Amino acid sequence: MPVVWTRHVADSLQLGTVSGPLPDRVIDLGSGGGFPGLVLAIQFGIQVELIEEDLRKAAFLREAARLTGARATVHATAIQKARVAPAAMVIARGLAPIARLLDYAEPLLAPGGECLFPKSRNVDAELTAAERDWTMTVRRWDSRTDPSGVIVRLSDIARR
């Protein structure tokens, strides 16, 4: 419990401020316990589409959204099967390497959309691997909660 605030909540909240304002609607891939998507919906009042395949986690997310009044919709399905209208931003935390995240995000991103991913010290290797199949503009910020963490905002995303 002593690390829950810093490790999960504050780590999620920084996504709403570190790279500028969030769009009004965001898709969170592999939402798990609601980090970062549900936290951002609660704090910033944005609409978040939470995609979570695990039915127990999806049930938790629905109840948490109901209790907090968060503008969140839970989609209890695999990311590849999600029927969600594209959004200006796709986010994910701790789900997969960047190359796989871009594969997941591609059909869910609106034209000109961006991805915002908190990553670890392996970010350079992940970006190099992703650049084999993708072109993108990368902006990065040091994490405020993890000395070895980085937040990357990917734009101008296109498959090679």
Structural write-up:
The chain has 160 residues and is of the alpha/beta class. It has helices at 4-13, 37-44, 55-68, 98-105, 123-130, and strands at 25-29, 47-51, 72-75, 87-92, 109-119, 134-142, 150-159. A seven-stranded mixed β-sheet has the order 3-2-1-4-5-7-6, with helices on both faces. Helix 4 packs across helix 5 (123-130). The longest helix has 14 residues, at 55-68. The protein starts with a helix and ends with a strand. The relative contact order is 0.17.
Task: List the main descriptive attributes of the protein structure presented here.
alpha/beta; seven-stranded mixed sheet; Rossmann fold
Summarize, please.
The chain has 160 residues and is of the alpha/beta class.
Relative strand content: 25-35%
Structural class: alpha/beta
N-C termini distance? 44 Å
Q: Taking all residues together, what is the mean pLDDT?
A: 94
Low-pLDDT parts are none
The H-level CATH homologous superfamily, spelled out, is Vaccinia Virus protein VP39
Give a count of the beta strands, DSSP E runs of length 2 or more. 7
> In order across it, which strands form the biggest sheet?
3-2-1-4-5-7-6
Q: From the 3D coordinates, which CATH architecture would you assign?
A: 3-Layer(aba) Sandwich
Fraction of residues in helices? 25-40%
Classify the fold: give the CATH topology: Rossmann fold
Question: Strand-and-helix sequence, N→C?
Answer: HEHEHEEHEHEE
Count of discrete structural domains: 1
